[in-house]
Design brief:
The protein is an alpha+beta fold. The protein has two helices and three strands. The chain starts with 17 loop residues before the first helix and ends in a 6-residue tail after the last strand.
Amino acid sequence: YDGEHVETSPRNGKHYTLKELSNAVNGYAECVRLIDGRHMWVNEEGRMLSLPTNSAASALAGRTIVGNVLICAAERVK
């Protein structure tokens, strides 16, 4: 949410695990489907935890997104 972009890939090289998604968003991972078909994974308790607004993610999602996110192709998560 501080504007930093970090490239990442699944540990096994193919698919993200729920644990990897949760670690990326620092909490319970929730999926926001983007208009281009990708998935944006967010902290489902982010608003309750008063995480800061993520401006770049909010622009992509077309709604307010808070905290860290992980964006990937839908098929990268099983």
